[in-house]
Write a structure and sequence with these properties.
The complex is a heterodimer of chains A (about 475) and B (about 240). Chain A has 17 helices and 11 strands. Chain A has about 475 residues and is α+β, with helices and mostly antiparallel strands. Chain A folds into 2 domains: about 190 residues, no CATH class; about 250 residues, no CATH class. In chain A, strands 2-3-7-4-6-5 form a 6-stranded mixed β-barrel, surrounded by 4 helices. In chain A, strand 10 and strand 11 form a beta hairpin. In chain A, helix 2 packs across helix 15 and helix 15 packs antiparallel against helix 16. With about 240 residues, chain B is an alpha/beta fold. Chain B has a domain of about 170 residues: Rossmann fold (3-Layer(aba) Sandwich), CATH 3.40.50.300. Chain B contains 6 helices and 10 strands; from the N terminus they run E-E-E-H-E-E-H-E-H-H-H-E-H-E-E-E. In chain B, a hairpin with a 2-residue loop joins strand 9 and strand 10. In chain B, helix 3 packs parallel to helix 5, helix 4 packs across helix 5 and helix 5 packs parallel to helix 6. Chain B is globular, with a radius of gyration of 18 Å. The chains are: A alpha+beta (about 475), B alpha/beta (about 240).
């Protein structure tokens, strides 16, 4: 007890120096915790948005992942309904599953020939109700706790009972001149001079328009509302051009600019009709969304077992493989975080070493007196180590309290930023919820660092010769 | 400074043999190496200080008084010779055991008082008892009694910077005596005090020595204090030049 009493009183005795040291530890704690919380917000938000869009695992035809983008129709899964049933009914997988749903991916050209605009697109055919359920996934309570915007809970624009409807990225809507009809904010309309009549079109474009017109004649009647239409052109499995008409329900931001300017989401039946025409309809992938990301490894292993057991020519990929940016983002922020840890840790280390060295120097005579009175070297060492430890504890407590205040202010400030490659700004938030582990690790790490730093001057104090210490002025 | 007191009671093996003299030195030499120059501070001193005596080491500045006290106090090691303190050949003890030996058997009074500035007078006096692992009740009783004996019970909560020079030295005397050591060493305890306070301190030490039946050895360069001593050892240039019992 006397060790702690003396340590505390010495810290108070040199209040200005102690305050500087505590301040350095506190700044270190603030920097690490706030950046860690910011990183957690980004990573968790990225995970949530990715899992909502692509699920955790995707089952593809073997080879699709490497070659399928060039010819998705050739890599379809024939009996996808049977496969989904098998996954749904598997007793090992069942408790882990949130959604199991087929998807069709394709590439084509989308055209709005009212204004003679067209562009290539990346199409995704989904089961609307399954997509809606996937968009409810929120394992980390990012949306239910109001940490992120809950746009996913809005009308998705797709309905199981309406195969003609689809949703496009805001970029697609802008390029194809749909912003006014879709009432998209902050979306410029194309200049009038760029819009021309059919008579100016080159012959190939006229053919495409006629093809579209023929398709319109055989398709369902136009909806009663004023929703715009897009004509989607793609090559079928047989290589023939195929066109379908899609009613655009809404435009929604896709985050990344490339996705925003290329995404067209439609009913799976429409996508199958476009990709397979009158041929057998397949799924390009079976998407598996789990209740928890922590089950991903186990679920993937089980899916591989099932595929092997039934001799299926399928493969399983997880969302980090489908979205390589996920690992890259984590890697980048982890590197920055480590850099901050190293810089702050070094500052704390040198500050504590400096403070304790000055303390040892000033108290050399006391050290000599204590040793003469019968205090062992080990106790002298402990005395200074405890002081370093106490400075670390107080610094960490101050730092964590200030970090909590700063995080609360930042989270209420409504700040936003646009990360590289993003189409629109995202909220700048700090994920305080569930950051207990981060706080604990930062706290314990800094206290340990302060304690270890104190060990260097403490050893010097313990090694002093009594006579030399007593002679010190 | 402090210690983890709960397990620091010195082992029984270093307890003194009661019939031995308080201090016995044989041909003790202490040489320092100062930037390549060999300086002999104590040059072949042999002496014996009986128990329960008020002994004084006298000599001019630089004569080797402090070095001799340091050697007797086991805080320095001789270059040659034999040192026995309270019956123990201290040169044969390890650093840890000699530290424990000091904790139990030797009390120090320093010229500059050397009180711990962050501790109160009470805590300074209590400190040596903590090193011995004494129970709290006994510690409290003995500390208060010691403070009363030096007439500082009223100032027990004062920190050293709230005390006068004379009061500080009385606290230092109480701290040295509270553990009832076999030997108390005082290095020029009156050097930083005015003559009146110095005389009072010497009188207090003399009284404490007789009351606690402790061996006192103190150094001084003030010949006026010689009259207070039972034994006087005069040294010059590191050699014992006169012994007066």
């Amino acid at each position: 007890m006397i060790l702690f009493k003396i340590a505390l009183r010495n810290i108070l005795r040199n209040s200005r120096r102690s305050a500087m040291t505590i301040g350095a530890v506190a700044v270190g704690a603030i920097a690490m915790v706030l950046f860690g919380q910011f990183m957690a917000f980004l990573v968790t938000g990225f995970e949530t948005s990715t899992v909502r869009r692509t699920g955790h695992l995707s089952v593809f035809h073997n080879g699709y992942f490497d070659f399928g983008a060039g010819n998705p129709s050739a890599y379809g899964i024939d009996d996808y309904i049977g496969m989904i049933r098998m996954i749904d009914d598997d007793p090992v997988l069942k408790p882990m599953l949130a959604v199991v749903t087929p998807t069709v991916s394709l590439f084509g050209i989308a055209g709005n020939f009212d204004i003679d605009a067209s562009k290539t697109f990346f199409g995704l055919g989904v089961v609307p109700s399954d997509r809606d359920r996937m968009r409810q996934w929120d394992e980390h309570h990012m949306f239910t706790d109001g940490i992120a915007t809950a746009d996913a809970l809005d009308d998705s624009g797709l309905r199981d009972d309406d195969e003609t409807r689809g949703v496009v990225g805001v970029g697609v809507a802008r390029i194809l001149g749909l912003c006014v009809k879709l009432k998209v904010h902050n979306c410029p309309t194309p200049p009038q001079t760029a819009v021309s009549g059919h008579s100016d079109m080159p012959p190939s474009r006229t053919d495409l328009t006629e093809l579209t017109q023929r398709d319109h004649d055989t398709a369902q009647p136009a909806p009663a509302d004023s929703s715009p239409r897009l004509d989607l052109l793609a090559a079928t499995a047989a290589g023939a051009p195929n066109v379908v008409s899609m009613v655009v329900s809404k435009a929604e931001p896709e985050g990344i600019k490339e996705l925003d300017e290329n995404t067209v989401v439609m009913h799976i039946k429409l996508a199958q009709q476009l990709l397979y025409g009158r041929g057998a309809h397949k799924a390009v992938a079976i998407v598996v969304q789990l209740r928890s990301t922590s089950d991903m490894t186990a679920a993937r292993a089980r899916l591989n077992d099932l595929i092997k057991l039934h001799g299926l020519d399928l493969e399983v990929r997880d969302f980090t493989e489908l979205q390589p940016q996920y690992e890259q983002v984590i890697g980048m922020f982890s590197t920055i975080f480590m850099f901050i840890v190293i810089v702050m840790g070094t500052i704390v280390l040198f500050t504590v070493v400096n403070t304790m060295s000055m303390s040892v120097m000033e108290r050399t005579n006391e050290i000599g007196t204590a040793r003469a009175m019968g205090v062992r070297r080990s106790s002298i060492r402990w005395q200074f180590v405890i002081e370093g430890w106490m400075l670390g504890i107080v610094g960490v407590c101050v730092g964590l309290m200030l970090a909590a205040v700063i995080a609360a202010v930042v989270n209420r400030a409504g700040m936003s930023w646009t990360p590289p490659g993003q189409a629109a700004p995202i909220p700048l938030r700090l994920l305080t919820h569930g950051s207990g582990r981060l706080v604990l690790i930062v706290g314990l790490g800094l206290v340990a660092m302060a304690t270890v730093a104190a060990l260097i001057p403490a050893n010097r104090a313990a090694r002093m010769q009594v006579v030399d210490a007593l002679r010190h002025i | 400074m402090s210690s983890d007191v709960s397990s620091k009671a010195p082992p029984e093996a270093v307890r003194p043999i009661n019939d031995a003299p308080a201090v016995r030195l044989r041909e003790v030499v202490k040489t320092y190496d100062r930037e390549g120059l060999q300086v002999t501070a104590v040059n072949g001193i042999s002496l014996e200080i009986p128990r329960r005596r008020f002994a004084m080491i006298v000599g001019p500045s630089g004569s080797g008084k402090t070095t001799l006290l340091n050697l007797i106090g086991c805080i320095d090691t001789p270059s040659a010779g034999y040192i026995e303190v309270c019956g123990e050949n201290v040169a044969a003890l390890s650093d840890r055991r000699v530290t424990d030996f000091r904790a139990r058997n030797i009390g120090f009074i320093f010229q500059n008082f050397n009180l711990f500035p962050v501790l109160s007078a009470y805590e300074n006096v209590e400190y040596p008892l903590l090193l011995l692992g004494m129970p709290a009740a006994e510690r409290h009783k003995r500390t208060l009694a010691m403070l009363e004996s030096v007439d500082l019970a009223a100032q027990q909560h004062h920190r050293p910077n709230q005390l006068s020079g004379g009061q500080k030295q009385r606290v230092a005397i109480a701290r040295a005596l509270v553990k009832k050591p076999e030997l108390v060493l005082a290095d020029e305890p009156t050097a930083n005090l005015d003559s009146h306070t110095g005389a009072a301190i010497i009188a207090l030490m003399r009284h404490a020595q007789s009351e606690h039946a402790t061996s006192f050895v103190f150094s001084t360069h003030d010949p006026q204090l010689i009259s207070h001593a039972d034994d006087t050892f005069t040294i010059r240039d590191g050699r014992l030049v006169e012994l007066r019992a």
